[in-house]
């Protein structure tokens, strides 16, 4: 983080971090509170070791982390992670077509487990298939690795379709209340008719008219393998976004020892800071560092059932036809399947 970025953060958050000094104790400066919280996110150091490093009490360090995360959500959410509008969706779709050759795309979606210390008296609620305790981060990412929609806080054991189906994104897409643009023809392919705007996900997600997943199985036709390649290529942006997030904020490679409610706020704050700091010149370096470490955030294995409607199958077939046509193909795709 540059000095200029640190100063901008301080100007945005400073008033929320300022506390009154008393006769017994001088209040901690906002800049120190911010530094402590950012180091906790970036280093993954324990709260105890941070308290020792900054010569502060452990409760003071914990309180600083809570204050900074709450301030980031309050002061920066609207600017750096706003609710998408129809114009926003159109911009995202244009970006996917220009950069990843996938038209009518609202974003790439995926879910990851955030490992936490087992909360007291929580039973198996947070216990996941990796045999750790976790909450789930569900995210929709644009063509530039920017988080556009996030949902945090589902129990780690909720990997049976409940995470996506119960999310505001899942319910909003199903109900048609998220200001998604109306269907339009694919570039140069009016003969295929009007096509809906869609999200792209992996095999963990259900196939919906507005959510595309790959064709299952191994003995696929060449045309279906092309669709899977093009979809996978667009979907990789969400994997890269998570990679950049965890490379910059290494707390995501540790077991977070906070109450789940405070972990939720920490994850939201980290995603907002990700958008605030996002720079094309740094993305490849951060992805390389993440690959070098050989550690990745655990995926959520199952986001919904495999039963798909005829309408959803028809939409996927139309995309398959488009990607295998002169209007929608790219020169290198045959070599990649």
Automatic annotation (TrEMBL):
<dbReference type="GO" id="GO:0016787">
    <property type="term" value="F:hydrolase activity"/>
</dbReference>
<dbReference type="InterPro" id="IPR045249">
    <property type="entry name" value="HARBI1-like"/>
</dbReference>
<keyword id="KW-0540">Nuclease</keyword>
<comment type="similarity">
    <text>Belongs to the HARBI1 family.</text>
</comment>
<protein>
    <recommendedName>
        <fullName>DDE Tnp4 domain-containing protein</fullName>
    </recommendedName>
</protein>
<dbReference type="InterPro" id="IPR027806">
    <property type="entry name" value="HARBI1_dom"/>
</dbReference>
<dbReference type="GO" id="GO:0005634">
    <property type="term" value="C:nucleus"/>
</dbReference>
<dbReference type="Pfam" id="PF13359">
    <property type="entry name" value="DDE_Tnp_4"/>
</dbReference>
<keyword id="KW-0378">Hydrolase</keyword>
<keyword id="KW-0539">Nucleus</keyword>
<dbReference type="GO" id="GO:0004518">
    <property type="term" value="F:nuclease activity"/>
</dbReference>
<dbReference type="GO" id="GO:0046872">
    <property type="term" value="F:metal ion binding"/>
</dbReference>
<keyword id="KW-0479">Metal-binding</keyword>
<feature type="domain" description="DDE Tnp4">
    <location>
        <begin position="109"/>
        <end position="275"/>
    </location>
</feature>
């Amino acid at each position: 983080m540059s000095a200029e970025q640190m100063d901008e953060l301080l100007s945005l958050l400073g008033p929320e971090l300022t506390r009154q000094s008393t006769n017994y104790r001088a209040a901690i400066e906002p800049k120190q509170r911010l530094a402590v919280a950012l180091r906790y996110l970036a280093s993954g150091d324990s709260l105890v070791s941070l308290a020792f490093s900054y010569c502060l009490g452990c409760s003071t360090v914990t309180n600083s982390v809570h204050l900074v995360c709450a301030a980031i959500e309050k002061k920066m959410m609207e600017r750096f992670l706003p609710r998408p509008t129809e114009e926003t969706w159109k911009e995202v779709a244009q970006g996917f077509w220009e950069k990843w050759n996938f038209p009518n795309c609202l974003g790439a979606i995926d879910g990851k487990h955030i490992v936490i210390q087992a909360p007291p008296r929580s039973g198996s609620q947070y216990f996941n298939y990796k045999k750790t305790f976790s909450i789930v981060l569900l995210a929709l990412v644009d063509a530039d690795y920017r988080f556009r929609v996030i949902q945090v806080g589902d129990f780690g054991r909720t990997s049976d379709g409940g995470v996506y189906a119960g999310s505001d994104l899942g319910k909003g897409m199903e109900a048609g209340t998220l200001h998604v643009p109306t269907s339009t023809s694919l570039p140069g392919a009016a003969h295929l008719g009007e096509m809906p705007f869609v999200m792209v996900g992996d095999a963990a997600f259900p196939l919906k008219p507005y959510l595309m997943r790959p064709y299952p199985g191994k003995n696929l036709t060449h045309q279906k393998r092309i669709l899977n390649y093009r979809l996978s290529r667009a979907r990789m942006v969400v994997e890269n976004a998570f990679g950049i997030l965890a490379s910059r904020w290494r707390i995501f490679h540790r077991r977070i020892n906070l109450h789940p409610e405070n972990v939720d706020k920490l994850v939201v704050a980290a995603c907002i800071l990700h958008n605030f700091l996002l720079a094309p010149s740094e993305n490849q370096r951060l992805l390389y560092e993440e690959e070098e470490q050989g550690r990745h955030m655990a995926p959520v294995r199952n986001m919904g059932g495999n039963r798909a409607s005829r309408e959803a199958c028809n939409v996927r077939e139309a995309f398959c036809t488009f990607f295998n046509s002169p209007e929608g193909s790219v020169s290198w795709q045959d070599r990649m399947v």
